[in-house]
Amino acid sequence: MNKLFLFLFLSSIIVMTGCSTRSYSSYKHYKYSEPTYYSDDKSAYNPTYDRKKYSHPTMRPYVVHGKRYYPTVVSVGDRFQGNASWYGPNFHGKFTSNGERYNMWDMTAAHKTLPMNTIVKVTNRRNGKSTVVRINDRGPFVSTRIIDLSKAAASKINMIGTGTAPVTLEVLGFVGKGKKRIPSTKQLKKSPKSMALHGGFALQIASFSNIDGAIKTQEKYNNTDGYTTVIKDMQGANGRMFKVWLKGFKSEQEARDYKANGIFKGAFIVRED
User: Fold this and answer.
1) For the segment 209-229, what is each residue's pLDDT rounded down to a tens digit?
2) What was the pLDDT predicted at 180?
3) Residues 106, 36: contact at Cβ < 8 Å?
4) How far apart are CA 33 and CA 216, in angstroms?
5) Cα(111)–Cα(149) distance, rounded to whole angstroms?
6) What is the DSSP string of the chain?
7) CB-count burial class (<10 Å; 0-12, 13-18, 19+) for 155
8) Closest CA to 122 of 173, 84, 169
9) What percent of the chain has pLDDT over 70?
10) I want to staple 157 with a disulfide (CB 3.0 to 4.6 A). Which of 76, 124, 136, 180 is the partner?
11) 4 pLDDT higher than 70
């Protein structure tokens, strides 16, 4: 009896361990080349951005959450300060804004306005650690953040655990011809056109037993900071309820950041269907 119990106990542990770990192959659907590491030597890059690329699709203004962004050319040596975040498995293998496949192990990053293939040195102001990345995506679309690092880059400056960190960005130059090509028009057509506006998370900002109250709230707050409101007609333990959701967040973290602003008292995060 004791042997049978021990066998079942050990078996259950093995099964639970197998279910709780997620192997790399579970989200690695594409073959990638070895990660590219970039030098912090400015002489290794073009000092100016090729004017022929000014009209490139990734340099055109775009709108996210009701805000218009204007990609612009910067100069070598320009510095910026703000908060950095990072993105990993949930985006691994998906198309970036310039048509490349996102590889969380590569030294890349997302920025709202820097030209694609800008080389940037990122220094964590908490610990002084730095890393060099190439811009190949747009984001993060949270006002308090200026750059979204790949998981590999975030690891280099020890910010995986904290999720965000205050950083200084320094423009080192631009990758030239023969080092990293600009994506073709065909690749760009595959890139996300909606900038991942329709994420899986929303904020519930109100709940009513009367549809009139829900409609008034929806109309009042629709397009707040570029987000949209919808009414969810749900049947609960207390009867029929009309819940107002604010949606359009790129990720759960973005929804949490917005909730933290305190605009909607008592709001909480919900998962969209």
Assistant:
1) 888 888 889 888 888 777 788
2) 43
3) yes
4) 53
5) 9
6) -HHHHHHHHHHHHHHHHHHH---GGGT--S--PPPP---S-GGGSBSS--GGGTTSGGGS-EEETTEEE------TT-EEEEEEEEE-TTTTTSB-TTSPBP-TTSSEEE-SSSPTTEEEEEEETTT--EEEEEEEE----STTEEEEEEHHHHHHTT-TTTSEEEEEEEEEEE--TTTSPPPPHHHHHHS-SSTT-S-SEEEEEEEESSHHHHHHHHHHHTTGGG-EEEEEEEEETTEEEEEEEEE--SSHHHHHHHHHTTSSTT-EEEE--
7) middle
8) 169
9) 77
10) 124
11) no
Q: Is the peptide bond before 89 cis (omega within 30 degrees of 0)?
A: no
Residue 112 backbone class (left: φ over 0; alpha: ψ -120 to 50; beta: rest):
alpha
How far, in Å, CA of 153 to CA of 136, rounded?
13
For 150, the token pair is: 């790949």
Alpha carbon distance 122, 171 (integer Å): 9
Please choose, from the candidates 110, 125, 229, the residue with its C-alpha nearest in 3D space to the C-alpha of residue 167: 125
- Among the listed residues 86, 134, 142, the one whose alpha carbon sits nearest the alpha carbon of residue 112: 142
> Can you give the pLDDT at residue 183?
52
Evaluate whether 97 touches 191 at the Cβ level (below 8 Å). Answer: yes
Report residue 123 as tokens.
Answer: 């220094």
Q: CA nearest 253: which of 86, 108, 95? A: 86
**pLDDT tier at 239 (50, 70, 90 boundaries)?**
confident
| Degrees to nearest 5, angle at CA 143 with 137 and 148 | 30
CA–CA dist 217, 179 (Å, integer)? 53
